[in-house]
Design a protein that fits this description.
This protein is α+β, with helices and mostly antiparallel strands. It has nine helices and six strands; from the N terminus they run αβββαβαααααββαα. It has helices at 3-54, 96-114, 136-148, 154-166, 178-187, 193-200, 205-218, 236-239, 242-252; strands at 67-69, 75-77, 86-91, 119-124, 226-229, 232-234. A six-stranded mixed beta sheet has the order 1-2-4-3-5-6, sandwiched between helices.
């Protein structure tokens, strides 16, 4: 083999070795990326599992605590004699996040009150402005909030409260229509013609607006839902996790 041939052979071997090394590096990178993706997906899956279990709603296990509508529009749910801790619940019947909170933590709130562990004070307010969706969103909220004021308390109020969230319309669609509100009230156990008259005439609408303005300012609300324990706001990471909410309330009672 001549010198030129030997040099050509060496160059080819070097080229082959380099190509082999590049191939190994490519395989290594693929394996590394695959491992990272699998680990990431596993972490995401674990996160979702934790979130789902941490947010698992309780079941309402006993009769509700007594419910009384106050003259100012707030509604108290509490066993007689229980004054502390106080859990204030600020919500708007048209608020999608409020609906999600009620679905997740609503049963826990009811159970804690029934167990005599907390005094719950609901504040149904209208927080949306008139210029949002050409007034549709505010109108929905106002009709629902005013109608809830036509019920003096008791189990019917709680059933009506829950029904409103169940029937919550999209924010851009007119809902909570008067006929439906009257029907849902009757199905919740409200008797007598005074309720229908109150809802049909929107008798409590101005009271609802005035109360909402006052509460938003006095409680310094930036949105709904907002939960406060003894006047201190708790984060959504607690409000939307029944187990954490229960612990926060029980800790406040110590």
């Amino acid at each position: 083999m001549g010198k030129a041939a030997r040099e050509q052979s060496v160059r080819e071997r070097i080229k082959a070795q380099r190509e082999e090394q590049r191939q190994k590096e490519r395989l290594k990178r693929v394996a590394t990326v695959t491992t990272v993706v699998i680990v990431a997906l596993g972490a995401i899956g674990a996160g979702w599992w934790y979130a789902a279990n941490g947010s698992k709603p309780e079941e309402v296990t006993q009769a509700l605590a007594p419910i009384t509508a106050s003259p100012d529009g707030s509604v108290v749910m509490s066993v007689a004699g229980v004054e502390k801790p106080v859990l204030d619940v600020y919500e708007d019947f048209q608020c999608p996040a409020c609906r999600a909170m009620e679905q997740t933590s609503g049963p826990t709130i009811k159970n804690l009150a029934a167990e005599g562990k907390v005094k719950v004070v609901y504040h149904p307010i209208t927080i949306f402005s008139q210029d949002m969706n050409k007034g549709i969103t505010r109108g929905n909220s106002l009709r629902a909030g005013a109608a809830s004021r036509c019920i003096p308390g008791g189990t019917p109020w709680s059933k009506f409260h829950d029904r409103l969230f169940k029937e919550q319309p999209p924010e851009t669609v007119e809902g909570f229509k008067i006929d439906n509100l009257v029907e849902w009230g009757r199905e919740a156990g409200v008797t007598g013609s005074a309720f229908a008259t109150c809802v049909t005439s929107q008798q409590k609408a101005q009271e609802q607006l005035d109360y909402s303005t006052r509460i938003v300012q006095s409680a310094k609300l930036s949105g709904t839902p907002t939960l406060k324990i003894n006047g201190t706001e708790i984060g959504n990471d607690v409000a939307f996790k029944p187990a954490d909410l229960r612990k926060a309330v029980l800790d406040a009672a110590k």
